[in-house]
């Protein structure tokens, strides 16, 4: 009825204001966070499938919010991207990941690769390659120790622009990983031309792998396709031993997931490494 519609309208308007207010607060908080060093990186290991050894880590962004506690990217990345704040945040992520890598290399973890996620906004922002080169130089890191993860849909947004940037990065010597693979719409021709060395199968295909024969067929097809293009195949979101066994038998090269290791603070990861060394 008209009456309730009117009430509905007022209710809607009030909630819009609350959302707008929350967003403004979030933007302010994000600026504050950058200035006052509230961001953190957690690291999730990437394991060699045959023997479970750690071949690298993926840096995952966290925000130690002064009142809301530790926040995950889902709580703030979208707003950071919309406002462009993801560019300075992403610069901080790359710097901090490389600083940490330097520290670990000095402790003897010289064969680990550091994977860093890039958002579409950073990807199309002109200074990415220069910033990557400068950061590698700052921490005296070999380019091969860095892997940049770009989602399939980011890479597909503007194919020619992506090709240019990815080629620049590849010439620099850093590795490229195509993240969330299978959720975008890459053409085979394009995939063949991409200077990538890794495909990460999206967690959506791993989740019900043990129950769903279609998912197993898809994983198997991605492995065959990827291997024919000389790409390393990673399965992410591995949570059960059954999934692990299946993924190994389907030929995945690298496994990542809560079963093998959660994203951890550097100190926790180091504790785990030291304990493992005693086994
Ligand atoms: P992603 O790159 O696909 O990262 C994998 C996500 O899955 C991470 O969530 C990780 O914590 C989670 N995960 C890992 N293993 C498992 C598992 O076994 N089960 C389940 N259910 N989840 C698992 P997180 O850390 O919340 O990050 C979410 C997304 O935020 C990332 O997805 C990535 O797209 C984005 N992100 C994270 N850090 C950064 C960053 O530094 N920069 C940018 N631009 N994006 C980031
Ligand atoms: Ca990733
Ligand atoms: Ca992913
Ligand atoms: Ca994802």
From TrEMBL:
Chain ranges of the EAL domain: 23-277
Domain of life: Bacteria
The protein's name in its UniProt record: Putative signaling protein
Species per Swiss-Prot/TrEMBL record: Oxalicibacterium flavum
Lineage of the species this protein comes from: Bacteria, Pseudomonadati, Pseudomonadota, Betaproteobacteria, Burkholderiales
Span covered, complete protein: 402 to 680 of 684
């Amino acid at each position: 009825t008209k009456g309730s519609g009117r009430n509905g309208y007022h209710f809607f308007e009030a909630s819009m204001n609350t959302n707008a207010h929350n967003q403004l607060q979030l933007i302010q908080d994000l600026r504050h966070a950058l200035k006052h060093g509230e961001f953190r990186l957690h690291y999730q290991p990437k394991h060699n499938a045959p023997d479970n050894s750690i071949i690298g880590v993926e840096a995952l962004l966290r925000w130690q919010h002064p009142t809301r506690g530790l926040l995950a990217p889902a709580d703030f990345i979208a707003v950071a991207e919309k406002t462009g704040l993801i560019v300075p945040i992403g610069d901080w992520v790359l710097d901090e990941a490389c600083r940490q890598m330097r520290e670990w290399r000095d402790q003897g973890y010289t064969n680990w690769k550091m994977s860093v996620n890039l958002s579409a906004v950073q990807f199309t922002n002109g200074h990415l390659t220069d910033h990557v080169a400068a950061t590698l130089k700052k921490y005296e890191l070999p380019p091969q120790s860095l892997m940049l993860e770009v989602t399939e849909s980011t890479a597909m947004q503007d194919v020619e622009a992506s090709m240019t940037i990815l080629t620049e990065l590849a010439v620099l010597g850093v590795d490229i990983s195509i993240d969330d693979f299978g959720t975008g719409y890459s053409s085979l021709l394009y995939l063949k031309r991409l200077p990538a060395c890794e495909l990460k199968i999206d967690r959506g295909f791993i989740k019900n792998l043990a129950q769903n024969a279609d998912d197993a067929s898809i994983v198997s097809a991605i492995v065959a396709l990827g291997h024919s293009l000389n790409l390393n195949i990673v399965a992410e979101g591995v949570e059960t031993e059954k999934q692990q066994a299946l993924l190994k038998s389907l030929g995945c090269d690298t496994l990542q997931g809560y079963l093998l290791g959660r994203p951890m603070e550097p100190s926790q990861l180091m504790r785990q490494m030291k304990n493992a060394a005693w086994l």
